[in-house]
Amino acid sequence: MTYRAPVRDLAFSLTAVAGIDDLAATGAFPDYDGDVLNAVLEAAGQFSEEVLAPLNRPGDLAGATYANGAVTAAPGFADAYSQFAAGGWTGLAAPASAGGQALPKALELAAFETVHAANMAFGLCPMLSLAAIEALEAHGTEHQKTAYLPRMVSGEWTGAMCLTEPQAGSDLGALTSTATPNGDGTYSLTGQKIYITWGDHDATDNIVHMVLARLPDAPAGPKGISLFLANKFLVKADGTLGDRNAFRPVGIEHKLGIHASPTCVMQYEGATAELVGRPNEGLAHMFTMMNAARVGVGMEGVGIADRAYQHALAYALDRRQGRSVWTGEAGAPIFDHPDVRRTLSVMKAKIEAARAICLSTGVAADMARHAATPEMRAHWKGREDLLTPIAKAWSTDAGVEIASQGVQIHGGMGFVEETGAAQFYRDARIAPIYEGTNGIQAMDLVGRKLSQDGGASAKAVIAEMKATLTDLGGLYSGKPIERFKTAIAAVEDATLWILDRKADPAGAADVLAAADAYLKLMGDVIGGWMLARGALAAKARLTAGDGDPAWLEGKIALYEIYAANVLGHASSRLAAIGQGGDLLKRMGREALGV
Amino acid sequence: MTYRAPVRDLAFSLTAVAGIDDLAATGAFPDYDGDVLNAVLEAAGQFSEEVLAPLNRPGDLAGATYANGAVTAAPGFADAYSQFAAGGWTGLAAPASAGGQALPKALELAAFETVHAANMAFGLCPMLSLAAIEALEAHGTEHQKTAYLPRMVSGEWTGAMCLTEPQAGSDLGALTSTATPNGDGTYSLTGQKIYITWGDHDATDNIVHMVLARLPDAPAGPKGISLFLANKFLVKADGTLGDRNAFRPVGIEHKLGIHASPTCVMQYEGATAELVGRPNEGLAHMFTMMNAARVGVGMEGVGIADRAYQHALAYALDRRQGRSVWTGEAGAPIFDHPDVRRTLSVMKAKIEAARAICLSTGVAADMARHAATPEMRAHWKGREDLLTPIAKAWSTDAGVEIASQGVQIHGGMGFVEETGAAQFYRDARIAPIYEGTNGIQAMDLVGRKLSQDGGASAKAVIAEMKATLTDLGGLYSGKPIERFKTAIAAVEDATLWILDRKADPAGAADVLAAADAYLKLMGDVIGGWMLARGALAAKARLTAGDGDPAWLEGKIALYEIYAANVLGHASSRLAAIGQGGDLLKRMGREALGV
User: Which UniProt keywords apply (chains A, B) (predicted)?
Assistant: First the structure.
């Protein structure tokens, strides 16, 4: 079984659901049109299928290796990375001034889905570069942008994000790495960072580390953190590489999955570093690019889910057991048994929902930068902010769930490593954890993103969902309509309830107790909304005779699958949202018997 | 972090929820009383904690090994097995005539939870012996019961169940292994079996294989399968071991988890075998013991879930990040953050629900054998049949989900193998697959167990749930009552709908499309019922001043946690139950674009 990039589905999601063509109307993407979209997805898909997918299982088996203060990428990965860089894939959405192609971020996200699906461990390397590029682009000095950015955009160098310390994970305010001025404008960086993805490797000549640390006079806590840049090899004035900088990996983690992605413990021992942005504003600088990284991780969830789905579907079409209730065939493909068909259909529906949520977040991010007026940019920024934690958490939870179902479809073979399904189950498990755990995403949603504009962004989404509900009356009747209507009402109730509890100083624990269920509710219902819009678009294309009718009919059925199997959760999410902090407080140590 | 057997919770579940004391009233267990219950659980717990738990991670790392046609157990496992056998643990519920202790199966199940939790790979070895013992006890000849049973009950020999072939997994009717009469009452067994758990090892002198195969004149399909017994070493008339029999492992699988449990490919090459039970009734004979094996697997789900929960709870009490909204403490244990507390509380609630479902299934099985009248035995048999697929599937799905949440609670550390949480996530994944996949369980529930008595067993459960609902009015008001009421109504609606569709010849696909959601609904609601009964019992003990008040209050809160976070799913399950087969049929190859 090989990976097949879902080019047609990706193009459909971008154009029919996420609204990428609205971007063209801004005039900010002169090089973008529908032909470019298809060409980019085709080429990315082909590269992912032919170069990256074949390295996935060997990379899992061999892993990246550490010895004597250096990391060696898994066999074949350095060469694949060279091809990736040569293809210009790192620069898809980077500014032309830095040598990028200045295409929409949303298109880049779609292209990267195929990379993550083909080889999640590989995809992390350019994904972290993109995050570093984004940080430098937003906060770097002119010198930094001139000296480093083009070589990161070209893929000649990679980037790494260095935040976590042993005592400072979700609570970055607790970090203790220090940066002392050297008197020449540079700083001397000291400390240990953990979980540094692709923090060291042999695939490029240089690696740019973006590191959070404290200046000597910095206040305690989150307001005393600054952002620094440290090159693995010092860069001379003429751009050539000089001495090795004073930092190195001291080990890599032995992990559940993504074995070919080295997760480094990095030691900085007076490393030469440059300040990026303003002193003591490092955390804020980091967060400006965190949105992009988070939706990127959401896309990883989509990619690994689609890979697991494809693998399971191929098996279900091939494996024959029992008599089909539909065809009467003895020794029928298990695909023709309703329970297997149901599992695969719900997997597919969730994948398309998650994909559309992530790509819509990408379009919102592009619009937030490029829409015509400040009001429109603010509107889209609000949409991006609201959708980002949902895109990250809901999609990565779906990734784990779907990878688990992928194993299940295979029966006993799914538990055997050489089948491949188990790797997806292992790899998928990291995505709900990094770039802010999904619990942190939920707290970010209810604690900040929802209320920062008084709920305006959420209310705008609710209003748009109601408009779609009206349109849906032309396509369905009965249950598929009722379920969406009930689900929208649940979102409305929950949103108002949380805004109300948030306004009450005594309501903080209630809001936090509701966080997870509220995020899941939003994901479930917004996902349904995306599929509903897809169904409406499919209907329009069918009417216009534009596209493969059976496949377009599939989009119409897919919403119904989702409505029957997912939208119904809305009422249970509502129950959990209202459970209140006091109930959880009662579940203390003594109640649990510890 | 070491494992602590939840002796108090197990005893509570057996006595306050599953109703084990009703068994004593049958007079069938003269050696059983409350003191014996506590002594057995204490001793089993201690053995699991001290002998089995320390071998869990080393066993994962080293695994069982295969070389030159023989399997070697992971280091320390053979010795641990000898201690297990010497402790008499295999014979807890076996008949006294075979050297067993003739205690209730339900108590044995509870004791085995601690074995599975401590070391799931180890637990499979005696669990498969129990299944083989059960099959021999029910269908063996007097000779077989005399010659083999006592040595299996004592643990001197282990048993293996040999069903699956490459082309015959869920569809055992497709198996092709053959058994030819030798003319002396024995048979010559030929064929290949896969996924044979502990099919070979070096922990005992002999292994008894229970093998499904076809007689030469057997009809095709499931009605031509017979059950055979083949000893690894032939047993002479005086009971001593003779020649090596003509079967051997030809390899073991490289699996996602339970590395210390050898999963063998077995080759039988004219092996000497004995018929067990009647010719061509092998599948039925196998199924008489399948109920017991399935609830045993359910208990594995409970065990691995509790292990993952304990591991995550210990981490949450230890790991300090951020300020608690409850205590105001900076650098608070993450246990004092509502979202972490919620996660752990829901994990705990599901574990106790699953445990009570499995133990209630065990009590029903005991009552089905030992209740006073044929009517009562039939009633309990119906209860056992109904609960068994739910106990197996719901508990093992919970095992996977809770093990995944256990990883999540650990954040980045959860993804690092040496933390241990990842092993539970890997190990847990097999339980929804073997002993009939959870999809097969769901089909068994709606296709057979629900309707075999015209729905009488399901209706009896519904009536009892309504009685509990009435009692609950004395303990709670508002939401915790309403949620249970709504959930019971959903079970009632769904049950009647499925019985109705099942009565319609055109309804077969509708029933199968509903199977998974119906099983999940039943598990969710019966689990809530169990916790509600636990809460009522806790209240009674509180009133009587009998037991640790904080812990008993915890049982009362736990039902409320479950009602808010799980019972609400009932309405969404109902939506999925009604989706119908036609909708799934529309999701064909073309619709999916393959």
Answer: FAD, Flavoprotein, Oxidoreductase
